[in-house]
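Q: Hi! First time doing this. I have a protein sequence and I read that you can turn it into a structure. Is that right? Here it is:
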Amino acid sequence: MKVAGLGYSSEATLDSLSQALEALIERFGPVERLAAAESKQALVQRLGQARGLSVSLVADEALARAETLTHSARSHQAFGTGSVAEAAALLAAGPGARLLAPRLISNDRKATAALAVAPKGET
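A: Yes, that's right. Below is the predicted 3D structure, encoded as structure tokens:
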């Protein structure tokens, strides 16, 4: 199972998220599900509807439990994690999931996307 976690700033648009997701798909291939922090679900839900992908929501307070590859001071201050996109992807993919690479940033720098893979047999 390939889960794309998404994070975004308050200035982001649906196009911001779409571009970040497209960059992820171009690099790693199709994804099977989207993931977002509960407080960041609005745009991700819209993107999921537009793409025909389900969205898994992760509690904001759970984000700090994920070991991320990126260490953004802004994300750490707001959510206790180095990357909202990476943490959401990892937590939604389940125990034993791993990130394929650090998060990708949209061209307008307002959205991020990261891909986590669940171990075989897990979803």
